Amino acid sequence: MKKSLYLIILLVAIQLQVHAQNESMRQIYDQAESEYRLGRLNQAIDLLQTHINNFQGNLKQNVYRLMSLCYLAQDSLRQSEDYAEQLLKENPYYTSVQDPIRFEDIINRLKSGTRATITTASNQAETLDEVPVPVILITQEMIKDIGAKNLLEVLTAYVPGITIIESTTELNFAMRGVYKSGQQSVLIMVDGHRINSYSTHTATPDYSINLEKVKQIEVLRGPASSLYGNVALTGVINIITKDGHDIDGVKMSYGMGNYKQNKANVIFGKHYADFDVTGWASLYTSNGETYFETAEESHGLIPLNGDVILHRFSKKPSIDLGFRFKWNDFYAFYTYQYAKQAPSYSLDVFQAPYSYDKYELFNGQSPGHSHSSHKGELGYQKTFGNLNLKASLCYDADVNNNYDIAGDIIPPVMGFNIEGVDTIIYPTVGCYQIMTWNDYHFEGNISASYNYSINGNKGSILLGGQYEKYELIDNVLNLGWNFNHILWTTNEDNAYMKTGSENGLSSFFQIKQTYKNFIFNVGLRYDRKKRFNNNTKEALSPRLAIIYARNKWNMKFSFNRAFVDASYFMRSNILPTYKGAEDLSPEYMNSFQYTFDYHFNPELNYEVNFFYNDMKDIIYYNSATSAEGNAYSNAGSYKACGIENVLKYQTSSFRGTLNATWQHAISAENYVTTGHRVNNVPKLSYNIILAKRIFERNDHGLWLHANVQGTSEQISYVSAFPGMENDEYIDIPARIIAGCGFDYKWKNLAISANVHNLFNKQYQQGGTSRSPIKQNSRWFLGTITLTL
């Protein structure tokens, strides 16, 4: 008892000592800031310089900012830039707000040029020239330049190799020709917290991710499992949210557009010496557009006339709300996300128009796929000289709902014995199935990095570990007909998914070493998972990168190995169509990349990247398998190469981006290719984005922007139904889609308007749908924003 009491007294004494020291350092900072405001710059610099090693947390970045401002006021530009760089290393996502214009220019120049700093590639702050793999950095200004409504539009505009894929139930994309029914090959994070579902691995780039909260988006192009493990197969997308300092108040917006689009958003933020808080909430709805399809145009099993639904998010709005705060070395993060897109057609095998509004809401859910996701994280990060420690605890809880429509009219393929009815019922009208499951995920992370120097050559070592636990709590399957009548429901004894839990343990290290003009980056991660059936799967993910950097250009060569495990949803499913899935192994990719980057001047930059991907153990579904065989197996492979080009030009009054990608399927087995082309993926894709400031005065300004997105022709494959003679190949013509808009600001009021598919181009896109689906025609959205 006495020992416990002594320990408590000791801990309280330590905490009081730390608090007293923080208060003392804050008083010194406040005094230095007063000296700066009085114009006594040397006194302010001396005060800060004397104690600079004793400042911690948010106060430290404030010190670097004030030092930079002091030197700038003395016209010592070199020293000012040095401390601005220190500020960005302390907080790579710092945004200058209500600072002197010259200081804002320094920050913006450092962040937009080759000295721009990101953290995603190596889990530490580094410039774009230092990152070991090709990276696309998308700023909030670039998002405005295309008038993007959702994350998918941002990625397909700015990231080479990403193209749209149609999947009827959710927004989806391919990365370098790799895609599935949902987006589950690219890891998507918000402030480093995984968004991908732990049951299906999917992360849908839709309206559940509010773009108004985004400061910048860091996209790693290529495998990244050496740091991030599972799912980081073809890339990583890290969405960095705004700090309280970036907002410094409240910003509210409301938008309206055709097809009954409504979009509302509020975001607030505040920053103090050792405390920073941001909160956000957004809603989006649209009735979508419809077009009439005749039975002759249908590729479904039962050709029907009817309306096809495009881009409908209604019944329940898409939601993104959350907050993030930092206090000294502690931080917390929470977000709730929800979105559901109405399926364009009924289930793929039937793929027919259906009567969306006739189907009953069940537990508030309409037809489509969704998951209501709660995500939270608590963390601590502390720097002791050259040593940085970070620890975090994460918790995710999801409610998943797949409400699939079989069709308004289907053949009598399944019979049911109903209590009180002597005959077997074969439902044929208004048929549907609803899968619902609840799960949670817990995760603990710890890492340490140490910076050192050997004979003037800088280096760093990163070590880390992760423990995670996933559990499927329950699941229910309902089969119904007549639009609102449940025929059959599962229970604990006949559930369609096996409940259970899985545990994972991983460790990783990374060494980064400079030698003259060379940078060597070596990393390795080991993942071990104990599955719900007590089987164990292991994966090793190495990375090797060599960078040769000069003043105006650099070259990078990298090798990465990555994996994505078969999802719990697939492996635990006992429905006959998933036979064999329980024993599936992860899919693997080996990737080689060579990147050349040339800086013509601070405004103009060109990058070309060559990649070669070798993907193995692709999960393959064989619909023709006999009753004794397995429907699923790791029987697929895919080899591809490509060239990605990015040309950027940016000044204070103009921004221009051109990117173009060519990709080629070398060989494939049991994968979605026809010859040397990936089905539904163009060999050539390109984007041109231009934004021009027309004028800017003290209280108002106007920007105009335009963009063009083009693809070469594509091929889409439609398999024959049993009894039909031949499969069908559909040629999708090349296309060019244009958009434009403006952003006008007057004092604290802003007005924007954007048009997508300006010339109302009629076109189709294929993917995991049975056949290509018509895409959106001309859509427009106007928004008014008030800042307080």
From TrEMBL:
Residues annotated as signal peptide: 1-20
GO cellular component terms listed in the entry, alphabetical order: cell outer membrane
Domain TonB-dependent receptor plug: residue ranges: 128-236
Domain TonB-dependent receptor-like beta-barrel: 329-758
Membrane disposition: Multi-pass membrane protein
Gene Ontology molecular function: siderophore uptake transmembrane transporter activity
Keywords: Cell outer membrane, Membrane, Receptor, Signal, TonB box, Transmembrane, Transmembrane beta strand, Transport
Record-linked InterPro entries: Beta-barrel_TonB, Beta-barrel_TonB_sf, Plug_dom, Plug_dom_sf, TonB-dep_rcpt-like, TPR-like_helical_dom_sf
Origin: domain of life: Bacteria
GO biological process, one term: siderophore transmembrane transport
Subcellular location: Cell outer membrane
Protein family according to the UniProt entry: Belongs to the TonB-dependent receptor family.
Protein name: Iron complex outermembrane recepter protein
